[in-house]
Amino acid sequence: MDVNQLPTTAVLSDYVTVCELDGIKVLRVIHPKATATISLFGAHVLSFQPSGKKDVIWMSEKADFSGNKAIRGGIPVCWPWFGKAAEPSHGFARSSEWTLNEHRENENGVIISLTLADSPDTHDVWPHAFHAEIIMEVGDTLKVGLVSTNTGNTPILVGGALHTYLNIGDISKTTVSQLGNEYIAAGVRHPSGGNTEFDQEVDRIYTHAEETVVVEDLGYQRRLTVTNHGHNAVVVWNPWKDLSISMGDMADNSYETMVCVESAVHDRSVSLEAGDKHILSTVIACQ
């Protein structure tokens, strides 16, 4: 995605502008340390490119930016649940309009905060009071934190994921490591050697991954690291050929240049009493 080509609708600062992308509003960050694009629809990171490097985030060439459905690629915010724990799949945050709360900047980068609160529309799906905040720090690395707050009077259970799509040169030359000794696939637990390569569809929930997961991207001759906090699992996903072909918002060969490595609370195991907060975060670096 060429962030420089998007039409500008407002200038917020020297480094942050508001732009239009088809049917959605996006924040464009152009800083000496990195560029990034963030959609207010879904609080969704669409791109992150450290200075002098290729984009770290993968975006589908067939992604729908109308604001009518979740966006394929980037970093979707799956909340307040992950997967098919309830309807809609992956929760409602990724298809909700978020509000720009704050933007700050200095020589190290730009910090952007987006918020989402309960409303009659969310009560139709999930009858709880809440406040959610996404804090994104764009610099040499990309830091994304999801802050969940129970603003009601009764306990709530939340899960979720920062569903990060990483841009890679060639999936057949990619290895993800430091994943721990166990994963869940199709509801069944399996032993793990701690790393995985790709020659077929992979959809795994690693329950004992290390804090920092390493992606060896030999196609682009680089190493990506994904450092997670507040999670109980790391999800690794590549749809492979058949599933890519079946998806209308992915090209048939999309699987060749992406892999998802996600900081996740996969089972809605976080219990928040009234006033409690939980932070799920991920830090993505390119070496």
Report on this model:
The chain has 287 residues and is mainly β. It has one domain: Beta-galactosidase, Chain A, domain 5, CATH 2.70.98.10. It is 5% helix and 49% strand. It contains 2 helices and 22 strands. The chain has helices at residues 120-125, 240-246, and strands at residues 8-11, 16-21, 24-30, 34-39, 44-50, 77-78, 99-106, 109-117, 130-138, 142-150, 156-162, 165-167, 174-177, 182-185, 188-191, 195-196, 202-206, 212-217, 222-229, 233-238, 258-272, 277-286. The longest helix is centred in the last third of the chain and has 7 residues, at 240-246. It is globular and about 45 Å long.
Pick out its properties.
49% strand; mainly beta; Gal_mutarotase_sf_dom; EC 5.1.3.15; Putative glucose-6-phosphate 1-epimerase; Beta-galactosidase, Chain A, domain 5; Aldose_1/G6P_1-epimerase; 22 strands; 9-stranded antiparallel sheet
Oligomer: single chain
Q: Could you list the spans in which at least 5 consecutive residues all have pLDDT below 50?
A: none
Task: Measure the end-to-end span.
Answer: 21 Å
Number of distinct beta strands: 22
CATH third-level topology: Beta-galactosidase, Chain A, domain 5
Q: What is the name of the CATH class?
A: Mainly Beta
How many domains in all?
A: 1
Helix-and-strand structural type = mainly beta
What's the helical proportion of residues? under 10%
Query: What is Rg?
Result: 18 Å
Q: What's the number of helices?
A: 2
User: Judging by the overall fold, what is the CATH architecture?
Assistant: Distorted Sandwich
Report the mean per-residue pLDDT as an integer: 96
Strand neighbour order, sheet with most strands: 7-8-9-10-22-19-18-13-16
User: Largest beta sheet, briefly?
Assistant: 9 strands, antiparallel
- Write down the secondary-structure element order: EEEEEEEEHEEEEEEEEEEEEHEE
Task: Please tell me what the overall shape is.
Answer: globular
Keywords: Isomerase
Family: Belongs to the glucose-6-phosphate 1-epimerase family.
Catalytic activity: alpha-D-glucose 6-phosphate = beta-D-glucose 6-phosphate
EC number: 5.1.3.15
